[in-house]
Amino acid sequence: MALNPYQKYRATKVETAGQVDLVVMLYQGAVRFTRVAIDAMERNDPKAAHTGIVRAQDILVELLGSLNREAGGQIAGQLASVYDYCFRRLVTANVHKDPAPAREVVGILRDLGTAWQEIAAQQRQAQGQQRAAAAGRAPAVRAV
């Protein structure tokens, strides 16, 4: 099947992204699918709600599986607990077709995603400084 230009762009973006950027994309996807599920619940479309919830849960499972508990230590354990909690809240939302637990998950994942976006930005800035130093020129300073 031929990909349209947007699909090609997204595929390239995923293939060329660093690990932290991939985590950010996973958070964004989980939030997006959970919001789709909430919208479906509000318009009384249980099939679409179920599909959105399951897709968000799949992403949570992927995030959980990507944790390096040895290197991540206590933080990885805490993230595992958060992912497990979010997964269970989505089960509750799906079983009862109640958007409230799903809204809670959106808030949690949005906040975590923002933190990961900041980490990704810091990583990119550090890499830019390293490249500039390697090239023998002063790094550009970005005003915040």
DSSP strand content: under 5%
How many structurally independent domains?
Answer: 1
- Contiguous helical run count: 5
H/E element string? HHHHH
Q: What's the overall geometry?
A: globular
| Proper CATH architecture | Up-down Bundle
Tell me the Rg in angstroms: 18 Å
CATH class: Mainly Alpha
Number of strands: 0
On the 0 to 100 scale, the average pLDDT is 87
* CATH superfamily heading: Flagellar protein FliS
Low-confidence region ranges: none
Structural class based on helices, strands and sheet pairing:
mainly alpha
Structure characterization notes:
The chain has 144 residues and is mainly α. It has a single domain, classed as Four Helix Bundle (Hemerythrin (Met), subunit A), CATH 1.20.120. Helix content is 83%, strand content 0%.
Helix-strand layout with pairing:
Elements: H1 5-16, H2 19-42, H3 46-65, H4 69-96, H5 99-134
Helix pairs in contact: 2-3, 2-5, 3-4, 4-5
Task: Record keyword descriptors for this entry.
mainly alpha; 144 residues; Four Helix Bundle (Hemerythrin (Met), subunit A)
What's this entry about, in short?
The protein has 144 residues and is mostly helical. 83% of the residues lie in helices and 0% in strands.
